[in-house]
Amino acid sequence: MKKKRLGLFGITILCVSLLTLTACRSNKDENSTAASSSTPASTASQASKESGSESKEAPAQTLTEKEKKELKVIGTKTGAKNEYDVVLSNQTGAVLEKMAVKDITVAEFEGNLLEKAAPFENEEQGVLYFTPTSEETTDSSEDPEAWAVVSGYDLSFGTKDGQTYILHSFPFEDAKEVTLRIDGNIAYIDYVSTTTGDSISTLEMEKALNE
Hints:
Layout: H1 2-55, H2 65-69, E1 72-75, E2 84-90, E3 96-103, E4 125-130, E5 153-159, E6 164-167, E7 177-183, E8 186-192, E9 199-201, H3 203-209
Parallel strand pairs: 1-4, 2-7
Antiparallel strand pairs: 2-4, 3-5, 5-6, 7-8, 8-9
C-alpha cells in the first residue's frame, strides 16, 4: 500500500512539472513574438524622424542690421520712404569699378553708384541703396492683346578689365540679399525670394535675353 501511494505521488509531481514547463514556454513565446513585432515599428518610427529632419532645408540666413552697417555703402543712402536697400555679394570672380541702375523704359545707364565705393572686390559684400524716381505706368487700352508697362529696373556693372554686364529686372522688391555671378559672358544673380521663400537663379532668363 505504501509503495502504491508513493507511485501516485510521483505521478502527480510529474504532471505538475509538465504543466509548469508548458506554461513557461508559452509565456516565453508570447513575449518573444511581442518584442519582435514592436521592434520594426520602433525602428521605422525612428528612421522616419531621421528622414524628416534631413529633408528639411535650413532657413536662409540674413544679416542683422548691425552687420549691414559695417558693409560698404553702394550708392547714396537717402532715408526716403520708398528707398530700397539690398545686400550685394560679389561672387563674380572680378573686381567691380562701376555700377548703375536705370528704369526699364530708359535706354541708357547713367552715373556710377561705385564712385565712392570702388573697388568692389571679389567676395566682398556691400549694401546697395537705391531710391526710385519714376512712377509706375500702365497701358489704358481696352485691347486684350495690349500689355502693361510696369516699373522695373535694370542694373549694370563694369569690371576692372573693362567688361560691362547687365542684370535685367533687378528684384529690388523681392530680395534682401543678392549674389552677383558671371557665367561666361552672362551676368546673373542668385537670391531667396521674400515673397515665396524660394531660391532663385536668373541664369536661364539672362541667357534667353542675350540670345
